[in-house]
Amino acid sequence: MFEAVTFLIIGLVFLVWSADRLVFGSAALAKNLGISPLVIGMTILAMGSSAPEMVVSATAALAGKTDTAVGNVIGSNITNIALILGLTAIIKPLSISSNVLRRELPLMIGVTLLAGAILWDSHLAFYEGVLLFVLFAAFIIAMLQISRKEKGKGDPLLEEQESEIPTGVSNKTSAFWIVVGLIILPISADVLVNSSVKIAHYFGMSDLVIGLTIIAVGTSLPELAATIVGVLKGEDDMAVGNIIGSNVFNILAVMGIPGIIHPSILNEHVMHRDYWVMLGVSLLLVIMALGKTRIINRIEGAILLICFIVYQTYLLMNISS
């Protein structure tokens, strides 16, 4: 048991680190090749926060753990909103001023409803995985078009994203970090999934619950740190935008992976319990973010955090379901 926990921590640390290095190298190389900062910000940087979830879900699906892969998606989305934005808003209220964000929020709800339609029969099919990936590509194209229209208007989200692109990095250094990330990322994901499965079996946890709790929270911890740092730097729009973008990517890209690799019947609790929590906190976020003040205040942050604590407590009290 101690060995499994040790490897879980090691796998998580290297997963997060290698994902960060891969995104860093990719963004720097793209900039050196003359790719628009707008394109880099809306693709490489935006998808970077979902890289750990993507690799973990692929690894779990290859191991035949589709429940874990889907649980990782739903659990990560709940964690992103209820834990990360909730805790961040308690530290400092979040101000929403980006027009891009105001368009992304309804889109996030639409994608979440689509997830419900797909999971309704408690089965993730191959064609559904393909559909999600096609929609993921369409989402990227649509966001690039929207961003281009807003670029000349001084949208704060776009300006904050572009400021995060690394500069002064040589092609050799960029390529080195890309290779390092591509090698270590899948290895660390495999270690994380295998150790999580051992821990789950030891405590009698279902594959679904391990994905909703340990893996989901673990892969979201870097986003928590990045969001808090971003807000303290005054980059509220990018902090919220990263969460919204991550949730959309998780459903379209990350959930599409197990559908393609290992389509299968899912635990009935995915649709009957966990999906509704994800939809509920997503709707709460939209109501809070698009209200009259355009501010997620400390009370609203506390409400989100309480939702997360209650949900995780319930899961841990029903670990076999």
UniProtKB/TrEMBL annotation:
Q: What is a single Pfam family found in this protein's UniProt entry? A: Na_Ca_ex
Keyword annotations for this protein, in alphabetical order, are: Membrane, Transmembrane, Transmembrane helix
Q: Where in the cell is it found?
A: Membrane
**Per the annotation, which location comes first and is thus the protein's main one?**
membrane
Gene3D superfamilies the UniProt entry points to: NCX, central ion-binding region (1.20.1420.30)
Transmembrane stretches, start-end: 6-24, 36-63, 69-91, 126-144, 175-197, 209-232, 239-261, 273-290, 302-320
State whether keyword Transmembrane helix applies: yes
Xref: NCBIfam families: calcium/sodium antiporter
Q: What is this protein called?
A: Inner membrane protein YrbG
Q: Which gene encodes it?
A: yrbG
